[in-house]
Write a structure and sequence with these properties.
The chain is α+β, with helices and mostly antiparallel strands and 231 residues long. It contains seven helices and eleven strands. Strands 10-9-8-11 form a four-stranded antiparallel sheet, covered by helices on one side.
């Protein structure tokens, strides 16, 4: 059996006993059932075909021939749908730094980020927006002014939000978090954009972190979600 890896645009995590997959091409989530979860984990663990079949047959008390057929069908479907690939993973490309916004007009930059990101999501969809923002290099903050820069950026973003209404509010975590992430990079602040999920009931949430601190969101609320994707 060929060696398989998750495709570059797939994010996955074992949560409460089942693998949850986020397809960054579409922004859609997929929850694998118990059998598909076991197959996914065995394949990505690098087990060879006989070991995979034996392991799965023992786990589910199934006939090896039936397991072999089901495994082949699973791998075929996963490859066709782009969830798995037999190609070796490639190193991520080094992106361009986001253009710096002048400190004197940070609030205008925050408003522009809200406007431009919302338009980008509405016009080109999640996949295009996420790919473009993923390609932005994060600024290096070596001047010891990171906390001051973040505080200025937070004030500017808070002010800009008073003059901008996201159409999907109050369920606006994705456009808001992507806008905030984009703006922080433009303000010279290194940040992470995080997407998390919870199983019961299933729900996804997106937020921004700076140096491990949740920005413009409730840390207690964020802790309810298991991280699935980070850029």
């Amino acid at each position: 059996m060929a060696s398989y890896n998750a495709s570059p645009f797939i994010r996955h995590r074992l949560i409460d006993g089942n693998v949850i997959i986020l397809d960054l091409r579409s922004g859609e989530y997929k929850i694998l059932d118990d059998v598909a979860t076991a197959m996914w984990l065995a394949v990505l663990a690098g087990s060879d075909r006989p070991c995979c079949i034996e392991q799965l047959a023992n786990t589910f008390a199934a006939a090896p021939a039936k397991v072999a057929a089901d495994l082949e069908a699973f791998l075929h479907e996963a490859e066709v749908s782009g969830l798995l690939t037999s190609q070796l993973p490639t190193a991520p490309a080094i992106g361009r730094p986001a253009p710096r916004w002048p400190r004197s007009c940070l609030a205008s930059g925050a408003w522009w980020s809200l406007f431009a990101t919302t338009r980008m999501l509405a016009g080109n969809g999640f996949a295009d927006a996420y790919a473009k923002l993923s390609a932005c290099a994060k600024p290096k903050c070596d001047d010891g002014d990171g906390f001051t820069r973040l505080a200025r950026a937070e004030r500017a973003f808070s002010l800009a939000e008073n003059f901008f209404v996201i159409p999907s509010a109050p369920q606006d975590c994705l456009p808001r978090s992507l806008s905030l992430y984009r703006f922080l990079l433009m303000a010279g602040v290194s940040a992470d954009h995080v997407i998390g999920v919870r199983r019961f009931p299933f729900q996804a949430h997106a937020w921004v972190e700076c140096a491990g601190r949740v920005v413009f969101d409730s840390p207690d609320f964020v802790r309810c979600y298991t991280e699935l994707a980070r850029m």
